[in-house]
Protein backbone atom coordinates (compact mmCIF):
# COMPACT_ATOMS: atom_id res chain seq x y z
CA UNK A 1 0.00 0.00 0.00
CA UNK A 2 1.34 3.40 -0.99
CA UNK A 3 2.19 5.97 1.63
CA UNK A 4 -0.34 8.81 1.75
CA UNK A 5 1.09 12.27 1.17
CA UNK A 6 -0.33 15.67 1.95
CA UNK A 7 -1.04 18.06 -0.92
CA UNK A 8 0.24 21.54 -1.57
CA UNK A 9 -2.17 23.02 0.98
CA UNK A 10 -3.84 21.34 3.92
CA UNK A 11 -7.52 21.25 3.02
CA UNK A 12 -10.13 20.20 5.55
CA UNK A 13 -12.49 17.40 4.63
CA UNK A 14 -15.94 19.02 4.09
CA UNK A 15 -17.90 16.08 5.49
CA UNK A 16 -15.78 15.80 8.62
CA UNK A 17 -15.75 19.61 9.01
CA UNK A 18 -19.58 19.62 9.08
CA UNK A 19 -19.35 17.33 12.11
CA UNK A 20 -16.80 19.67 13.77
CA UNK A 21 -13.85 17.37 13.09
CA UNK A 22 -10.66 18.99 11.81
CA UNK A 23 -9.34 16.30 9.47
CA UNK A 24 -6.75 17.10 6.78
CA UNK A 25 -7.20 15.64 3.33
CA UNK A 26 -4.52 13.83 1.36
CA UNK A 27 -3.66 14.34 -2.31
CA UNK A 28 -3.53 11.60 -4.95
CA UNK A 29 -1.44 12.90 -7.85
CA UNK A 30 -2.38 10.00 -10.15
CA UNK A 31 -6.11 10.86 -10.00
CA UNK A 32 -5.55 14.59 -9.32
CA UNK A 33 -7.97 14.55 -6.39
CA UNK A 34 -8.00 14.85 -2.63
CA UNK A 35 -9.31 12.18 -0.27
CA UNK A 36 -10.10 11.75 3.43
CA UNK A 37 -8.87 8.73 5.35
CA UNK A 38 -11.63 9.00 7.95
CA UNK A 39 -14.82 9.17 5.86
CA UNK A 40 -13.60 8.17 2.34
CA UNK A 41 -14.68 11.49 0.77
CA UNK A 42 -12.94 12.29 -2.54
CA UNK A 43 -13.07 15.45 -4.62
CA UNK A 44 -11.08 17.92 -6.66
CA UNK A 45 -9.77 21.22 -5.31
CA UNK A 46 -12.65 23.36 -6.62
CA UNK A 47 -15.25 21.02 -5.10
CA UNK A 48 -13.56 21.08 -1.69
CA UNK A 49 -13.22 24.87 -1.65
CA UNK A 50 -16.88 25.31 -2.62
CA UNK A 51 -18.16 22.97 0.09
CA UNK A 52 -15.89 24.47 2.76
CA UNK A 53 -17.26 27.95 1.94
CA UNK A 54 -20.80 26.66 2.41
CA UNK A 55 -19.87 25.20 5.78
CA UNK A 56 -18.24 28.46 6.96
CA UNK A 57 -21.70 30.07 6.98
CA UNK A 58 -22.18 28.25 10.26
CA UNK A 59 -19.36 30.29 11.83
CA UNK A 60 -20.11 33.71 10.29
CA UNK A 61 -21.29 35.28 13.58
CA UNK A 62 -18.81 33.52 15.83
CA UNK A 63 -17.10 36.72 16.97
CA UNK A 64 -20.22 38.91 17.04
CA UNK A 65 -21.78 39.60 20.42
CA UNK A 66 -25.53 38.98 20.23
CA UNK A 67 -27.72 40.76 22.77
CA UNK A 68 -31.45 40.95 23.45
CA UNK A 69 -31.61 44.18 21.38
CA UNK A 70 -30.59 42.22 18.27
CA UNK A 71 -33.91 40.33 18.23
CA UNK A 72 -37.21 41.74 17.02
CA UNK A 73 -39.87 41.93 19.68
Task: Please sum up the structure shown.
The chain is an alpha+beta fold and 73 residues long.
Which structural traits does this protein have?
22% helix, 3-stranded antiparallel β-sheet, alpha+beta, 73 residues, 2 helices
What is the CA-based Rg, rounded?
16 Å
Shape: elongated
Major sheet details: 3 strands, antiparallel
Mean pLDDT: 82
What does this molecule look like?
It is a single chain. This protein is α+β, with helices and mostly antiparallel strands and 73 residues long. It has helices spanning 14-18, 45-55, and strands at 26-28, 33-35, 42-43. Strands 1-2-3 form a three-stranded antiparallel beta sheet. The N and C termini lie far apart (61 Å). The mean pLDDT is 82.
SSE order and pairing:
Blueprint: H1 14-18, E1 26-28, E2 33-35, E3 42-43, H2 45-55
Antiparallel strand pairs: 1-2, 2-3
Amino acid sequence: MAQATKGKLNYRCPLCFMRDLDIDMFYDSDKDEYYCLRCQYTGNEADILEKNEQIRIKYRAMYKRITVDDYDR
